[in-house]
Specification:
Blueprint: H1 3-13, H2 30-34, E1 47-49, E2 52-55, E3 88-95, E4 110-112, E5 122-123, E6 128-135, E7 142-148, H3 155-166, E8 180-184, E9 189-191, H4 209-223, H5 230-252, E10 260-266, E11 272-273, H6 276-279, H7 284-287, E12 303-310, E13 316-322, E14 336-337, H8 340-352, E15 372-376, E16 383-384, H9 428-445, E17 450-451, E18 456-463, E19 500-502, H10 531-536, E20 547-550, E21 558-561, H11 564-577, E22 593-596, E23 602-609, E24 612-616, E25 620-621, H12 623-637, E26 644-648, E27 657-658, H13 661-664, H14 669-672, H15 680-697, E28 720-721, E29 729-731, E30 736-738, E31 742-748, E32 763-768, E33 774-779, E34 785-790, H16 795-800, E35 802-803, E36 807-813, E37 821-831, E38 840-845, E39 849-852
Parallel strand pairs: 5-14, 7-8, 13-15, 24-26, 25-27, 28-35, 30-39
Antiparallel strand pairs: 1-2, 3-6, 4-9, 5-34, 6-7, 10-12, 10-17, 11-16, 12-13, 18-23, 19-22, 20-21, 23-24, 29-31, 31-36, 32-33, 32-37, 34-36, 37-38, 37-39
Helix pairs in contact: 3-5, 8-9, 12-15
């Protein structure tokens, strides 16, 4: 069977709304992904790793109900775009990789994982902003969607991107807050420090650097938060704007219209729920609508929605897809910057399609097609890639310390314990596994599906989430369920309140447990009892780590016992008796408030592309909450010809989680992280419906409220290097290697954070060509080539911002399909003698070495 026929057949095997297949051919390398053994992981009841069986009770996915386009929707607006299937589009990507070094160098640690500290010391993959500009010739409107390789989008980041667009003479003619959506992929392995994600407040601007350093160091040890980092913030904002600029240039260089195909498929065995006890609180009748062919409940969304942007001549601008799963496969212990599984999938698709990662010329973007693959985020609130996290062990046990060991929960043998080699390099095999599944689904659906039809449109406004009364009569019947206790819905009025996080927030999610424990509530009103299950089953994961890990610049971090369950047994009644009774918390219901949360206005946005609506919200939405929210918005837009709604999560700001009223009662991680109380989802449904109704009626967006004016922080400190022979080989390559081996080379290095090497690389693997020149075959954006900086910080040098005796390590895992030949590894960096001195470039080159052997067909 030909590749194209195979891809088309795979698409028909899923619940896919198919149109005629495009004649666009995928490269031969795609077949390696479609044949990958990674696709079978989780598809049987067994888990066997390295010949050892760890479970035989895993529940594989089966085909189930899938949200496909709604039938018999209303007519599209009669504005000249009815039936339109021609769109102009463009794509662009740009590097947004921030500084290495974390708090030890005055920069922000990695953001996303609750387990401190995470001072990044290298790069697994570079981070990119991927932008898509889409215009409708029939009504002259256009929109931009940006998928950004970071944990979330902050209000400050959004504000500064919009300021930069407004100041750009070209972009400001077309784009602004109303029609530009910025959504994060939610990787937990990207630097933070770009706005309002800290728990403790930033110190006032102008605070002496020494005081800032001590304050931030203590904060990173205890809370794993990310103080403001001007260097990281700048590269993020600049990169997003530059990606938009490239997408615009690409659109403008192609005046001809072409269809955009939407394909909806079902991706199985790629995600699972991390909070089954919370999902079980939802209405039995509602849950019964989501049961798979084997009779099992589908408690995480399996829908994989993809847009293929391919021109009439077959030239491809790229793809955008949405699938809800946490990109946390690198683990909460790794210290490398990484775009995780979604970034891995995007980079791999782009490599197949010959994507160029080069800076612009002096004249700016040339507008030529350059394939961009965005694996964007959707309703991933309770969806994780840890397929075996709750499975019983071979003895059928699942109590604390039982079940599948933590390091095998992804189905791989990646290191996890502190004393294992490669521990700090993350769970890279697991990242490949999760990324391969998403990539394979994208390949199956590439250039498939039905052409979008209709206009381009957009609406945007801000709401005050702290003071919303839910009084829309159209929602009244959806705010209670007759098969659950009426007392759950007795609140009148149903309103939101000041933001607060619950005590179980500090327990972390089931895929990254921290100290403390989950499930602590002020009232036992959950419809389904869960206490015994979360304390004594689920492998004890809801009991947290029961310890604190302290990394005090010693060879091995210290593990300090912390009886989280006992501590929460004592703390929770105190919080319920004090904090929960305060006026600002009087509507938090079952939540024991631990700390206040942001009160910045919340952005809600809808982009319409034909019959598809993209709902941008600043939350991590649980599966059932996402189902309800999509239905609410689709009910409002269907009369105007919209038949499909997809949620773009973590968009334009960040307000943590959104659980259903029923899930909230259990106060697991998601409920404890639902800031604005039990009626938050209902309030968002009401406000999103209000916005959607204006779009359906062709009216302006509701007035909303003004966003806060936020101020960036101080400049990041400069780390200086002590005198050294920069670029000198510290540890050289061997004379020869075979495919599958690992090449490990080290160089005397300067501090890499003083030159981010944006749209370039710290490392290059090069192959000698027939003329004696050198051709680049891998850079530090590629997951097979890791860049690790060994900075050897100590308490004195970190406060003085001095780097002494550091090295740059290149770890190249030679792909199995690498051609035989002569290779070398080159390192590029800068050194700085003082904070006022200009950076001095240097370069180091390893010895030449041979790759010997016959290359395999696949990597």
């Amino acid at each position: 069977m030909s590749l194209l026929a195979l891809v088309a057949a795979c698409g028909r095997a899923s619940h896919d709304a198919q149109g005629e297949a495009s004649a666009t051919m995928l490269p031969a390398a795609a077949q390696c992904v479609l044949d990958s053994p990674a696709l079978a992981v989780g598809s049987t009841p067994d888990l066997v790793v390295n010949g050892v069986a760890y479970t035989d009770s895993h529940q594989p996915d089966a085909p189930g109900p899938l949200e496909t386009p709604r039938q018999n929707v209303g007519a599209q607006p009669d504005d000249g775009c009815r039936g339109n299937e021609g769109f102009r589009f463009g794509s662009g990507l740009y590097d947004v990789t921030g500084p290495i070094g974390g708090d030890a160098t005055g920069h922000a640690d990695l953001a996303g994982m609750v387990l401190p500290p995470q001072a990044q010391n290298g790069i697994h993959t570079r981070l990119y902003a991927r932008a898509f500009a889409i215009a409708s010739p029939c009504n002259g409107k256009r929109v931009v969607f940006v998928s950004d390789d970071h944990a979330f989008v902050t209000a400050l980041e959004h504000q500064e991107v919009m300021k930069a667009i407004a100041a750009d003479p070209l972009l400001s003619q077309y784009y602004g807050p109303d029609n530009v959506m910025i959504s994060a992929t939610h990787t937990h392995s990207a630097p933070g420090g770009y706005g309002d994600e800290t728990v403790l407040p930033n110190l006032p601007a102008g605070t002496p650097q020494f005081i800032n350093d001590v304050y931030n160091y203590v904060q990173s040890l205890v809370l794993s938060t990310s103080p403001y980092d001007a260097d990281n913030f700048k590269v993020m904002v600049d990169g997003i704007v530059q990606a938009i600029r490239r997408a615009h240039a690409n659109l403008e260089a192609h005046p001809a219209s072409a269809p955009i195909r939407m394909s909806i498929g079902e991706l199985l065995n790629a995600n699972r729920s991390r909070d089954p006890p919370a999902y079980m609180q939802n209405s039995p009748a509602e849950r019964a609508q989501y049961v798979d062919a084997d009779g099992h409940e589908v408690d995480v969304d399996k829908r994989f929605l993809q847009l293929s942007l391919v021109r009439g001549n077959g030239s491809a601008a790229g793809v955008i897809n949405w699938f809800g799963v946490h990109p946390t496969t690198m683990g909460n212990h790794e210290l490398l910057i990484s775009s995780d599984s979604k970034g891995w999938a995007g980079l791999s698709f782009e490599r197949m399609m010959g994507t160029r990662y080069v800076p612009d010329t002096e004249s700016g973007p040339d507008g030529s097609d350059n394939f961009v693959a965005a694996f964007a985020q959707s309703d991933e609130g309770n969806s994780i890639p840890d397929l075996f996290v709750f499975d019983k062990d071979m003895d059928g046990k699942d109590g604390p310390g039982q079940g599948v060991p933590y390091r095998f929960r992804h189905g791989t043998d990646d290191p996890y314990d502190l004393d294992q080699p490669g521990y700090a390099l993350g769970m890279q095999k697991a990242t490949v596994l999760s990324g391969t599944k998403q990539l394979a689904q994208a390949l199956k659906q590439y250039a498939q599906g039905s052409a979008l039809s209709g206009p381009v449109d957009y609406r945007f406004f801000y709401v005050d989430m702290t003071a919303i009364t839910v009084d829309d009569p159209a929602l009244a019947t959806s705010l209670n369920y007759p098969d659950l206790p009426a007392s759950l819905y007795a609140d009148e009025p149903k309103r939101t309140c000041a933001g607060a996080v619950g005590v179980s927030k500090l327990a972390g999610g089931a895929n990254a447990p921290d100290l403390g424990a989950a499930g602590y509530a002020c009232a036992n009103v959950a419809p389904v009892p869960y206490w015994d299950a979360v304390r004594h089953h689920y492998n004890g994961i809801f009991n947290g780590t029961q310890s604190v890990i302290a990394d005090l610049d010693v060879v091995r971090p210290l593990t300090i016992p912390f009886p989280g369950v006992l501590a929460y047994d004592i703390l929770t009644p105190l919080l319920c008796a004090t904090e929960a009774q305060l006026p600002q918390n009087d509507c938090q219901a079952e939540k024991p408030p631990l700390a206040p949360a942001t009160t910045t206005p919340a952005p809600i946005q809808i982009l319409r592309i034909g019959n598809l609506a993209i709902l941008g919200i600043p939350w991590e939405t649980t599966t059932m909450a996402g189902r309800r929210l999509r239905q609410t918005v689709l009910d409002a837009l269907a009369p105007a010809g919209v038949d499909t709604v997809v949620i773009a999560g973590l968009a334009n700001a960040y307000f943590d989680y959104m659980a259903t009223r029923e899930e909230y009662t259990a106060q697991l991680y998601e409920g404890a992280s639902t800031y604005f109380g039990p009626w938050q989802l209902a309030a968002v449904q009401q406000e999103a419906r209000r916005l959607a109704l204006t779009m359906a009626a062709g009216e302006p967006a509701p007035e909303g409220i003004a966003p806060d004016a936020l101020a960036p922080g101080d400049a990041s400190p400069v780390t200086i290097d002590t005198n050294a022979e920069f670029g000198k080989i510290a540890s050289d390559a061997q004379a020869s290697y075979a495919q599958g081996d690992t090449v490990d080379v080290s160089f005397v290095a300067g501090y890499p954070g003083n030159d981010l090497r944006t749209m370039a690389s710290y490392l290059y693997v090069e192959r000698q060509d027939a003329a004696g020149g050198w051709t680049v075959v891998a850079t530090d954006k590629d997951p097979e080539l890791s860049f690790v900086w060994h900075g050897k910080p100590d308490p004195v040098s970190r406060l003085l911002h001095v780097s002494a005796g550091s090295t740059a390590e290149a770890i190249w895992r030679v792909p199995a399909n690498t051609a035989a030949g002569t290779y070398r590894i080159r390192h590029v960096g800068v050194s700085r003698a003082s904070a006022d001195a200009a950076p001095v470039p240097y370069e180091g080159v390893s010895r030449s070495f041979a790759i010997e052997g016959t290359p395999a067909r696949c990597p």
